[in-house]
Design brief:
The complex is a heterodimer of chains A (about 260) and B (about 325). Chain A has helices at about 15-20, 40-45, 70-85, 115-130, 150-170, 185-190, 210-220, 230-235, 245-260; strands at about 5, 15, 50-55, 60, 90-95, 100-105, 135-145, 175-185, 195-200, 240. With about 260 residues, chain A is of the alpha/beta class. In chain A, α4 (about 115-130) runs parallel beside α5. Chain A is globular. With about 325 residues, chain B is α/β, with parallel strands linked by helices. In chain B, strands 1, 2, 3, 4, 5, 6, 7 and 8 form an eight-stranded mixed beta sheet that branches. Classes of the chains: A alpha/beta (about 260), B alpha/beta (about 325). At the A-B interface, β4, α4, α5, α6 and α7 of A face α7, α8, α9, α10 and α12 of B.
């Protein structure tokens, strides 16, 4: 029985899992957007059965032999078993309302969706594929930022993905970046904020520095709603806030309006 | 004068040497041999201490209060410097400076993070931590350099982009991202040098070069050792251990292939002899720039793409 029910983390309504999944993990009572797994996201947005995954077997190495409370290698192996994916990003090609798209999504459950070499490589290959196949690019970000455990290699993924986007702009297809909760750090400060059009899910935390770091720096409490989607829209930093249920149609509309 | 813990034995000897010299000149006594002996000893001690620095000690050298900053290198290496200000959108950010100057007589764009030497300067420079306006100024000037065919030389020295309310309101992440993409597409030679602190995305923003150089005692990291320690070890006091784990020294980065050349500093660090360090840096810049000048605009963009495209390590899993 336990697996069948869950609780909304905001309104605390007891929710029937199959119903919740049907609603793409949006609470039917308070409309809170719960985290959504990468594959579920891509399936929900792309045309039925059109998704073909790329680079699904790309897995991390441990160039720093990094170890904190756990060895990095053990951590990634454990997550690979638990989540059935070798790293934090799922990528592939498909169709959206008939338009060819290259689409990818973060798996936040995998080390906070952090970007190491594998995520950076998969994002880059996806961008290159989109240019090569004359497809629109759609990326769903949900990430705490660069992955500490791969050190400077992670940092360099910011440059790699941004450089790939510089080339992508030679083509005529748009890049729609969808910012989900949360999108911060090195992912926010590279490809996620480089969308030709930038959409955000409601109430997602989006920014450069995490709220804790800012509070420690300025030594004061942050105002309510700070760094949330609504705040960013007000400050002119994103194009629109789109509830999850309407994302597919909105992205298809933009791709149709901008694509050749 | 700021003296780091591990510099103290060397400074102590040097103080003795100065005392002896003073005594000798005052009393007309000949201490020459003593002095020479002590000087040899001081040099040996310095070589000994500096041949075995821990990553954490290197981080401290990179942050040394007397370390040369970008404007110091401008004095040593460039002529005809015309500093240009402002992002044309909101403000001027003195934490990231830029301007055109001549290097060996040829016009180039200089960009760099600038820290202050004292409290007053640091208030102005925000401790070398740029706000979005700094990155937007860098983007603006880089586009100017592209238009006029001027090479871009950047000097990285920041603990990181400034995390504040205003920074977030005005799109710090967007400003950095745009700087990265712009630099990737520049049809001119770009050389980035980490001269001090290479703190995360705020450092990398001006780091997308055809060549990446690094001073011997600079560091370059995805996160500060303190930040890493706070997150992973739940306390900032284990920064020395984090500095080790992050593999952030020039030697590490050269080994990873992220850095093309490690530029030697003067013995005891750049702050002991800024002119000599600048001379070494000038030599390296000259050599790499000459190589890059042989490439066409398209080749330069392609070369830079290949440079970063190859970064990362991964494997095919079963």
């Amino acid at each position: 029985m336990e697996g069948l029910w869950t609780k909304c983390e905001v309104c605390e309504e007891i929710l029937h899992r199959p119903d919740l999944e049907q609603a793409q993990n949006v609470c039917p009572r308070c409309q809170h957007h719960l985290p959504l797994a990468a594959r579920a996201r891509l399936t929900a947005v792309l045309d039925r059965d059109s998704f073909e995954e790329m680079d699904g077997a790309l897995g991390p190495l441990d160039p720093l032999t990094f170890s904190d409370s756990k060895r990095y290698r053990d951590r990634t192996r454990g997550l690979r078993k638990a989540l059935g994916m070798p790293d934090a990003f799922v990528a592939g090609t498909g169709r959206l309302d008939g338009h060819p798209v290259a689409a990818g999504a973060f798996e936040f459950e995998f080390m906070g969706g952090s970007m190491g070499s594998v995520v950076g490589e998969k994002v880059t290959r996806l961008i290159e594929k989109a240019l090569e196949k004359d497809a629109a690019l759609v990326l769903f970000s949900a990430s705490g930022g660069a992955r500490m455990q791969e050190g400077v290699y992670s940092l360099m993924q910011m440059a790699k993905t941004s450089a790939a986007l510089a080339r992508f702009r030679r083509g005529r297809r748009p890049y729609v970046s969808v910012l989900c909760h949360p999108t911060t750090g090195g992912v926010a400060a590279s490809f996620a904020w480089l969308g030709d059009v930038i959409l955000a899910e409601p109430h997602a935390l989006i920014g450069f520095a995490g709220p804790r770091v800012i509070e420690q720096t300025i030594r004061q409490k942050l105002p309510d709603g700070f760094q949330r989607s609504e705040f960013l829209l007000e400050h002119g930093m994103i194009d629109a806030i789109v509830p999850r249920a309407q994302l597919r149609d909105k992205i298809a509309q933009i791709v149709g309006l901008l694509g050749p | 004068m700021t003296v780091l813990d591990f510099e103290k034995p060397i400074r102590e000897l040097e103080r003795k040497i100065d005392e002896l010299k003073e005594l000798a000149s005052g009393e007309g006594v000949d201490f020459d041999e003593e002095i020479r002996k002590l000087e040899r000893k001081a040099r040996r001690l310095q070589v000994e201490i500096f041949s075995d620095l821990s990553p954490w000690q290197i981080v401290q050298l990179a942050r040394h209060a007397e370390r040369p900053y970008v404007l110091d290198y401008v004095q040593f290496l460039f002529t005809d410097f015309a500093e240009l200000h402002g992002d044309r959108r909101f403000a001027e950010d003195p934490a990231l400076i830029g301007g055109f100057a001549r290097f060996d007589g040829e016009p180039v764009l200089v960009l760099g993070h600038q820290k202050g030497r004292n409290t007053k300067e640091n208030l102005l420079r925000n401790f070398g931590m740029p706000r979005p306006e700094g990155y937007r100024k860098a983007t603006r000037l880089a586009r100017l350099a592209a238009r006029f065919g001027r090479p871009v030389l950047t000097f990285i020295d920041t603990s990181g982009a400034y995390p504040g309310i205003g920074s977030e309101e005005r799109g710090q992440a967007q400003a950095i991202a745009e700087c990265l993409e712009t630099m990737a597409g520049l049809p001119v030679p770009v050389i980035a040098t980490v001269i001090g602190e290479g703190g995360s995305g705020g450092a990398l923003a001006i780091g997308v070069g055809n060549r990446i150089l690094m001073l011997q005692y600079a560091y370059y990291s995805v996160i500060s050792p303190e930040g890493c320690s706070s997150i992973l070890f739940r306390e900032p006091t284990r920064a020395p251990r984090a500095a080790e784990a992050l593999k952030l020294t020039a030697g590490d980065l050269r080994g990873f292939g992220v850095v093309d050349e490690v530029v030697l500093e003067s013995p005891g660090g750049a702050h002991r002899d800024p002119a000599r360090t600048a001379e070494n840096l000038g030599r390296a810049l000259r050599q790499h720039l000459a190589q890059l000048r042989a490439l066409s605009p398209d080749e330069l963009v392609e070369d830079r793409y290949r440079r970063f495209r190859g970064m990362g390590v991964f494997e095919q899993v079963e």
